[in-house]
Design a protein that fits this description.
This protein is of the alpha+beta class and 575 residues long. Helices cover 19% and strands 31% of the residues. It has a 5-stranded antiparallel beta sheet with strand order 19-20-21-23-22, covered by helices on one side. Helix 1 runs antiparallel to helix 2, helix 1 packs antiparallel against helix 4 and helix 2 packs across helix 5. The longest helix has 34 residues. The protein is globular.
Length: 575
Amino acid sequence: MRASTCRILAAKDSIGARGQQRLLSVVAWGRNAEGQCGTAGNVSPLVLHPSVVAELEGQDIVSLSAGSLNSAAVASDGTCYTWGSGKGGKLGHGNSSDITTATRVESLVGRTELQRVALGLNHTLFLDQSGSAWSCGDNKEGQCGFGTSLEVLAKQRRQEWNLSVQMAKFAQGIAQEYVETLQVKDSSLPSPAQHAAAASHLFSGSGGETKQPSLGRQAMAPKLLDHSAQARELEQTREMVAGGLGMSELSADSHFGNFGKGSSKQGTDPVKVALGCVDTHSRAMGCIPGHHTTPMRMGHDEHGLLAAAHGKRDGQQESQPEERGIGSKRIVDIAASNHFSMLLTDAGEVYTCGGGFNGELGHSSSWLTSASQVEGHVRQALLDNGGATAVACGATFSVALTASGRVVVWGGIAGCKPPPEARRAGGVVVAEVMGLPPISHISTGHHHAILSDGDRVWTMGTWLDKNGRRVGTEWGVPKELEGLPRDGIRCISAGARASAAVTDKGDLYMWGCLMAEDNARALVQQATGVTKSAKESAAWMWEGMGGDNGPQKIPWLPPVHSVQLGAAHVLALVH
């Protein structure tokens, strides 16, 4: 979601001995439950100190991206690495599995060389060195820009619902057969009928809000799985699931691989294990409609693969890829949000695609499946200022830096009034940020943006302080950030609820809330069962987890070249 502009510097340390250049290192900290920190030697759900991303050592990394629950890096040779949450296929590895180590996107090797990556909620944009944009992940709002028709998107939603029903039935069968096997040994276990009803209830629940029926899991857990004599039945269940999914076997780290090991995620309830196993492997195999697990080039509506997936029959005339909008343009910048994407051409034109109901698309339509140029007051504001030179997008708003150094914003933030000088037309609110010197850097979080002229930093919108309290300024009305030294600003980055700036001296400053203590405590407890407060560790008080009173200089770090903030984790390129 976040996008930032930094000065283009060689990602090498020029202070190496005898004039030799030394590659920089990537370090990470923060939330790591999905592996987004990429620290192979630290599997903790929370990384409380900077840890090196070992798989990137020896690589000449020139660009970093931190998303909500995933990360990406690009090397000078155009190779791309992604890791973290793979939901929707957004990592580009051909599946939807989480990956805990930085892994090269093999599907792009030999096809193109990249220069940067933008991470949305469940989709990813790739910008190659020739000026073409690629995308992968969840496309159910059209955010991947493949030009998928609304009819097909609607069909995919129906297919996903039908698939969820089939998965629920299959999981019921697994749970029922498993419990019937063990029922013979222990009559106190819940009946197959209870488990079948629970499976249906759990799977059709509304995002976890529906209260789960009590099956006496705490009482039944030791009886189910604490005895090695039951290993045979468990192995039979695993084989049954693998056969039903059309797989030779289930991986050792799957939900069934955790049977009898006290898995903190699924516990020992066969119903939940069955549901989790079916759902996880279906998503991992890319079976969910509307999920594209390998990158495809944007701007070519109706790809051959998509046409086949959408039901083109033999004998029908094959539609040729049609270049529309950005297909014939050279792209120079990209940005990705929850459900929409932004692209900037070398002519200073801004294109958007996806879904948005707050005017963030800069278009009269709230749903665009092909990248379309912004229109109306948004386009005029950009033209009046010489065209755009950089783009960024928050959860429900968009920002563009123009050639004149002025910033144009459109869309909206819940609870924030638009600035007095804003113009409204066709449901789109657009404003030029006034009263600032020429801006050179922009970056956006969920509900805030930060701007810099290379010397000072301004903020607008809302974010959270370290105690989880909402703070900030009026939307579209920037306020200068106090507490930063006048050392020159090399790079800025806005995360979900925190922000950061790197000075020309290589010092890193952070403010806002990277991750609240109660959230961190719950995360650790969920993963480990430990109920102690995260604050008991002195590391929790480290400024790298957020600043209480404005910008805080981050200790323990060598000189920083650039930084990227995700929803609750940080990536930094250091000397």
